[in-house]
Amino acid sequence: MTHTSSRSSSPHAPKSGESSLRLAVIFCGIDVCLNSYAAYGSNSVTITGALFRELADFIAMLSAFATVRAVRRAPNERFAYGVGKLENLVSVGTALLMAGCGISILFQALEAIKHPRPTEGTLPGIMLFSGSALVCLWLWQRNQRALRHQHSAISQSQAHIWFAKALVDALMATALLLALRFPEHRWSAYLDPVASLMGVAFLFHGAWAMASSSVEDLLDATLEETTKLRIMRHMVDHFADYEHLYQIRTRRSGPRVYVEVFLRFDPELRVGDVAHTIDRLRSAIVASIPGADVTVCPVEPSAPS
Q1: Are residues 168 and 233 in the same domain?
Q2: Rounded CA gap, 199 and 164, in Å?
């Protein structure tokens, strides 16, 4: 049995994800302070809800940053495969935190719809939401670039969070601007809580996307079809080098991909020839799948197919 691994196709990928999270923690900390100021001077449900969201996001980003640093550590005697699944656990926790935040904002928005009142002191909030939307889009693009280098549950979660936040913040800014521009109209009093409800919908969607993808990895689901097709392409390329393919097992743990290939070789081949074939097949799979940990297992000829 021969085994190898590759951390990433790019040595800068883990550092890139960590630097993105460091920026996210700083941004969320600043945003909490600014939202606190904006919420203190207004009666807007939207701005108050944004403060709760930012507090939840700050806690989630800080946890994710600590998790990425922990996952980077080399496997030890107790955790021979590393602690990659910690990323998935933190992503599930982030999703639950977002869902809890959404429920809290939902009740506030419904109460504001039941008893509508004109919003006041929303200009700082409008400026804050507009700037925040632009920063969130930039952070989303950074995480998208990191995902192209190396899959990570944390980076995927951050991408969902920042894209949702950018849409929500743009929506909030638009709603508050319309309410400020047309205060004499009765319908303007409903813009604030309705915008909050739409923001809650984005939060729930992002929470569901994060939780569903992370739970699959926690349950050792096989890799996506595109990745499995890449593996099968290499098996076809080396078809003449082995007698029978018994099984391919794949799973993901944090940023790492584990691939196990079970093959039967011609019993007349020398051990050195088999080892050379395994090494070429393994190297080909590692080169095409970032972060792959590949094990090729020779199987006895009598093994059931």
Answers
A1: no
A2: 9
